[in-house]
Design brief:
Elements lengths: L38 H9 L5 H24 L3 H28 L1 H8 L9 H12 L2 H17 L4 H5 L2 H13 L13 H16 L2 H6 L13 H32 L5 H36 L3 H28 L1 H9 L6 H15 L2 H16 L4 H25 L1 H27 L4 H33 L4 H26 L5 H14 L4
Helix pairs in contact: 2-3, 2-6, 2-11, 2-12, 3-6, 4-5, 5-9, 6-9, 8-9, 11-17, 12-13, 12-15, 12-16, 12-18, 13-15, 13-16, 13-19, 14-15, 14-20, 15-18, 16-18, 17-18, 19-20
Length: 530
């Protein structure tokens, strides 16, 4: 790792795919096309990483789920029949309204895409292909909205596993489409990358269908009922309205980031996207999981006005989130380059692309814990009926993000955009926490600070161990082969885990109790029987 402190020489013109939105790591392959493809088709296919639009639309899933919680806990007090009737009304309401939105999106795709990514028009064929794929993928919004409603119902019934794995259906569908659908697209006069757009639709359908059996097991039976005046539906819509404004503001911020990145050197958009998705991995593993379970508990306490229990839940969720995300933050920083090289450095994604992506990952990783903490705090506001506060704060932090973008993009290029996002996320968390503290009273801020200090120390030690181990292995094996990259990353992660667990025990970090208890239960179940 020490020999990579200076960026490698400039690569050929074929650099990372230009994609206007964050894409999952499994979608990195869409940036490449078969060797020997004509130059124009290569540029188009690389540019068509627009399949990542599915990620933008999937944000709707969390928005809908969070609003359903508050309403369903209220309906649940009236009995299971009232709750299931509300479930039918919500699902049918979404089916009708989102279908209309999707239809409008398809009809006006040729106007929407140039607004989202104006720079695409400068490359022949790029804008047209993006518009075509956007039209194909727009129905994903309907599928993911219905999946979100089902997820919300299941979570209120304390069913977490199936809803948690449902989003993986998108990645599975994209992988399958890359092998099954994309190769046959040229026979129908379509770019191979268009097959990935169809994969997005299949993934959305999978997210919905995989949850249906669990929903029916909870006693749900679909009925063709629709009401735009039902109190439960109106309550959910009322909760969603300000939250939707906040979501829209967030997407505008993403569009601004995309626009600014498109003004930077070729490859900047992709470097940011790949780094962003890597940063999202620990958020998905830890932050989303903690936020989902916390949402159920917080909604229950809020419905019963059990404020002491609610505040204890918030405090522990934030501390446990730090326990998991702070070491992940420093591990990403310590192993950024070898991780990026292992996952992405293949084909046209060269050594310089890996280096530039790693630098963006450093900047994004700074805000990882804050990103996760925000996912815990925002639903608390929704559960308490204070939906306007997080929306207002989101506008403030978005303005801060844009200002920082303009200040930092000059000297730091794409790294400045990533760093601005991280700083804004930290500000978002601080404002959300402080306002909530003033609304409901102390939430264990001192305990949070003490725990954060111990966890940070343990995380630094773990990152140092990871860096030392990875550097040693890289000096011996290099970083040019897949086997060497696996060895470098694997040694770093293993060393970090060992050091972190040792430091946690030595520092007596109490947030580790649930983790060690879980490990003890697993060992008890899998160990030899007496």
């Amino acid at each position: 790792m020490t020999e990579n402190r200076e960026p490698p020489p400039e690569p050929p013109d074929d650099v990372a795919a230009e994609v206007p939105f964050p894409v999952p790591p499994s979608q990195a392959a869409v940036a490449a096309v078969p060797k020997g493809a004509p130059g124009k088709e290569t540029g188009l296919a690389r540019a068509a990483g627009i399949v990542s639009l599915a990620t933008l639309l999937s944000r709707v899933l969390g928005l809908i789920r969070e609003q359903i919680f508050a309403a369903f806990f209220g309906a649940g007090r009236q009995g299971p029949e009232a709750a299931m009737r509300l479930a039918n009304l919500v699902i049918n309401f979404l089916l009708v309204t989102v279908s209309v939105i999707c239809l409008l999106g398809i009809l006006f795709a040729d106007r929407l895409v140039p607004w989202m990514a104006p720079g695409f028009g400068q490359v022949p064929g790029k804008l047209e292909l993006t518009t075509q794929m956007t039209g194909i993928m727009t129905p994903f919004l309907l599928l993911v909205a219905l999946a979100a409603a089902v997820m919300g119902v299941l979570n209120t019934r304390r069913v977490f596993f199936i809803p948690a794995i449902a989003p993986t259906m998108l990645n599975l569908a994209l992988i399958a489409s890359g092998f099954v659908i994309a190769p046959f697209c040229p026979r129908f006069g379509l770019q191979p990358i268009v097959g990935m757009a169809f994969g997005v639709i299949l993934g959305g359908l999978g997210q919905l269908l995989i949850q249906v059996p669990a929903l029916y097991a909870q006693g749900f039976r679909w009925r063709a009922i629709l009401s735009f005046r039902d109190p439960g539906v109106l309550r959910i819509v009322g909760l969603m309205a300000p939250a939707a404004i906040g979501l829209a503001a967030t997407q505008v911020n993403i569009f601004v980031n995309t626009f600014l990145a498109s003004l930077l050197p070729q490859g900047s958009v992709s470097w940011l996207n790949y780094a962003y998705r890597l940063m999202q991995l620990p958020i998905g593993l830890f932050g989303v999981a903690i936020a989902t379970v916390t949402l159920a508990e917080v909604s229950r306490h809020a419905a019963r006005r059990e404020m002491p229990e609610l505040k204890r839940t918030i405090s522990f969720s934030l501390r446990f989130g730090l326990f998991l995300t702070l070491p992940a933050t420093l591990l990403l920083i310590a192993l950024a380059h070898p991780i990026v090289a292992l996952l992405y450095q293949h084909g046209r994604f060269g050594s310089r692309d890996s280096w530039e992506t790693a630098q963006a990952l450093w900047a994004y990783a700074v805000g990882l814990s804050a990103f996760s903490a925000v996912r815990v705090l925002v639903p608390v506001y929704y559960s308490l009926g204070m939906t306007r506060i997080p929306v207002t704060i989101s506008f403030v932090t978005i303005a801060l993000n844009v200002a920082l973008n303009l200040i930092l993009m000059g000297p730091l290029q794409h790294r400045g955009l990533a760093l601005a996002t991280s700083i804004a996320s930290v500000a978002n968390f601080v404002l959300l926490f402080e306002v909530l503290r003033r609304k409901i009273g102390p939430m264990g801020g001192r305990l949070l600070a003490r725990s954060a200090g111990k966890i940070l120390l343990a995380s630094v030690l773990a990152a140092m161990a990871a860096y030392a181990a990875a550097t040693g292995v890289e000096r011996v094996l290099g970083l040019t082969t897949v086997v060497a990259r696996i060895a470098v990353v694997g040694s770093g992660i293993a060393s970090a885990i060992a050091m972190y667990l040792a430091a946690v025990v030595a520092l007596r970090i109490q947030e580790s109790v649930p983790l060690f208890s879980f490990m003890a239960r697993v060992l008890a179940r899998t160990g030899p029987k007496a």
